[in-house]
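PROTEIN DESIGN WORKSHEET
SECTION A - STRUCTURE
LENGTH: 486
TOKENS:
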């Protein structure tokens, strides 16, 4: 008997076959963009380097006994001075460089404009300087708005390099697999749309929203300069973003060969983002003799590995302090509990996750993780925020014997930040605890943990405790799937 002609097969046959093909394409896209090779120069563990000058910088906002807010800022005064003074090279990489303020209150410093002016001033001082800002496409809402700050930089011969996020793995694969199939080819336009701009005036296109749902970023915050007094680097948790200017943040500046390592991580991002081969000099400034202080550059999952190694070293008689904006990574949480069980003195100071540029958040994930830590006996306190965020990311190990270690930079301790999805940069320090920079770090954390009569930096665990099992498992699902902004 002859087979039916394919032209006479029912429509449902073709719909089923098309649906199966689409499902297989979705599954293949899902898997590939979870495990595909990373661009060259990502997930870097730099070598330990000697440094003769390492300094700690902090921005702090606190309340006095009467409830009046006070603020001290040091990070961007240092960063802008570095950029202005550099006569050979100035390269910065910052996640947020914009005036998007959402519902932020008044009284913020215009950091984004000040960063631009630092670049413009530095470029005006000499014709032979190479200058570049590497940044995240969120600052143009993924091509949905014009960014006048970037226009001014380009007019002053400062290269603006927007990171090609499509080269990275997908932290939210349930959505990103569909987006890569259907929507990434559409591009975008800055000439308006029909949807409200959630962070500014005017309207944006649907394409902005669809791209934003990928929940990935170049989240780095670094400065690398070369001038008459040599090469310097700075790694921080702070953004030059107007609405972020009251946040608590930390930074470290340093010299030596690690500055060259930092620059190479930025050269990699510029290259895979399609920029012409950057005309940036190679930095090889090794310190003549070994120094007591050593630093190294870590990016992406290398930060996770270093954090876990530090926590694993902590045992009885050792002290481990964590100051963190977002804490959610399951390996880190379990490691902290294990360190406490081994007898280490563990202290965890967290942002309460309630403030987001004038909007109120529900406390996820920190309050849920804090409950888990508290139940295991780990001491937890909350940053005493009043509209700003406790945006620092720093882990400190003070062993009974051996060198002190500090790990700090852009990376929150979450799956997105530590598992090779976002671009992140941290610096790790090790050296004697009597070094000035180590003493400054210890004093900084101690003040924020215990407070002073005139400076109320932190609150007891009970102040923001949340023992809702529903929200706990909501956090666990969000962390596991990537369906979250943390």
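SECTION B - SEQUENCE
RESIDUE ASSIGNMENT:
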């Amino acid at each position: 008997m002859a087979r039916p002609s394919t032209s006479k097969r029912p429509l449902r046959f073709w719909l089923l076959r098309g649906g199966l093909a689409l499902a297989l394409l979705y599954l293949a896209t899902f898997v590939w963009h979870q495990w595909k090779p990373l661009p060259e120069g990502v997930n870097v563990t730099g070598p330990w380097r000697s440094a003769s000058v390492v300094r700690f910088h902090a921005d702090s906002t606190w309340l006095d006994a009467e409830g009046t807010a006070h603020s001290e800022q040091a990070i961007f005064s240092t960063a802008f001075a570095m950029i202005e003074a550099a006569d050979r090279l100035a390269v910065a990489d910052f996640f947020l460089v914009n005036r998007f303020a959402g519902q932020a209150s008044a009284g913020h410093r215009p950091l984004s404009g000040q960063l631009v002016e630092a670049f413009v001033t530095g470029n005006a001082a000499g014709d032979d300087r190479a200058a570049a800002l590497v940044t995240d496409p969120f600052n143009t809402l993924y091509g949905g708005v014009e960014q006048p700050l970037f226009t001014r930089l380009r007019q002053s011969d400062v290269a603006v390099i927007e990171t090609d996020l499509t080269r990275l793995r997908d932290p939210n694969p349930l959505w990103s697999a569909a987006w890569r199939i259907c929507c990434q080819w559409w591009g975008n336009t800055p000439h308006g749309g029909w949807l409200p701009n959630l962070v500014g005036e005017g309207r944006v296109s649907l394409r902005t929203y669809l791209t934003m749902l990928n929940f990935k970023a170049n989240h780095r915050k670094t400065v690398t300069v070369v001038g008459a007094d040599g090469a310097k680097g700075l790694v921080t948790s702070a953004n030059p973003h107007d609405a972020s200017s009251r946040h608590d943040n930390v930074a470290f500046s340093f010299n030596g060969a690690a500055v060259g390592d930092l620059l190479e991580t930025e050269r990699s991002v510029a290259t895979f983002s399609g920029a012409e081969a950057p005309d940036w000099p190679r930095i090889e400034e090794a310190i003549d003799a070994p120094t007591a202080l050593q630093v190294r550059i870590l990016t992406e999952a290398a930060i996770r590995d270093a954090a876990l190694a530090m926590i694993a070293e902590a045992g009885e008689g050792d002290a481990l302090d964590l100051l963190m904006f977002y804490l959610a990574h399951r390996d880190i949480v379990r490691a902290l509990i294990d360190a406490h069980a081994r007898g280490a003195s563990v202290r965890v100071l967290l942002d309460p996750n309630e403030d987001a540029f004038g909007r109120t958040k529900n406390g996820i994930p920190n309050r849920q993780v804090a409950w888990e830590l508290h139940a295991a006996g780990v001491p937890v306190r909350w940053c005493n925020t009043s509209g700003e965020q406790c945006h620092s990311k720093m882990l400190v190990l003070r062993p009974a014997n051996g060198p002190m270690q500090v790990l700090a930079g852009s990376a929150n301790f979450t799956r997105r930040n530590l598992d090779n999805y976002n671009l992140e940069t941290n610096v790790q320090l090790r050296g004697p605890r009597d070094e000035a920079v180590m003493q400054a770090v210890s004093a900084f954390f101690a003040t924020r943990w215990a407070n002073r009569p005139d400076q109320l930096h932190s609150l007891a665990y009970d102040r923001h405790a949340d023992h809702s099992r529903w929200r706990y498992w909501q956090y666990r699902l969000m962390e596991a799937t990537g369906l979250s902004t943390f």
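SECTION C - NOTES
Residues 11-35 form the longest helix (25 residues).
The mean pLDDT is 93.
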